[in-house]
Design a protein that fits this description.
Layout: E1 12-17, H1 19-24, E2 25-35, H2 39-46, E3 50-51, E4 56-60, E5 63-67, E6 70-71, E7 88-91, H3 94-104, E8 109-119, E9 122-132, H4 135-162
Antiparallel strand pairs: 1-8, 2-7, 2-9, 3-6, 4-5, 5-7, 8-9
Length: 163
């Protein structure tokens, strides 16, 4: 078997996740997008320094941009360091951008980043098309999570008593 015949394996590692996204939105669809970054931004992300909690994506003139994503300045950067709150261009196919734009126009829908991760030494953004949750939906999720946790605790207590 030749080396070029071997399957290509790559490791996908999360850099940053958006914990508010799944709490505040029902995720209808997900997309993988590339992101245009400067060298100091990549080095800062490699150190795990950034947050996308309040960020969102917006289509502008046929291109999609990530807004409010905070990537800390690189500690060892010089005067050419990047702006931490700059809007960053996302890389998607035109038909995906058009589809996202049409779906995001619906009332209560938004394009939100779910996470940043490494794939083949490139930074990728996992975008989600989300529909905003009402307050009672959030309460239902909390109740369900608490009841599941209580059930797991009860099961583990029973198993301890059994053995």
């Amino acid at each position: 078997m030749l080396s070029h015949d071997l399957p290509v394996l790559f490791f996908v590692a999360d850099i940053i996740t958006n914990s508010k996204a799944r709490r505040d939105y029902f995720i209808l669809e997900t997309y993988e997008a590339g992101i245009v970054l400067k060298g100091t931004e990549v080095k800062s992300l490699r150190a795990g320094r950034g947050q996308i909690r309040d960020s969102f994506a917006k289509v502008d003139k046929g291109e999609i941009y990530l807004h409010n994503a905070h990537i800390d300045e690189y500690n060892f950067g010089n005067r050419l360091n990047h702006n931490p709150k700059a809007s960053r261009k996302l890389l998607l196919h035109k038909n995906e951008i058009r589809k996202l734009e049409m779906q995001a126009m619906a009332k209560g829908h938004a394009i939100i980043p779910l996470g940043l991760y490494w794939k083949k030494n490139r930074v990728k953004v996992r975008l989600g098309l989300g529909k905003g949750k009402a307050e009672y939906d959030k309460r239902d999720d909390i109740k369900k999570r608490e009841s599941d946790a209580e059930m797991r605790r009860a099961m583990s207590r029973q198993l301890k008593n059994y053995y």
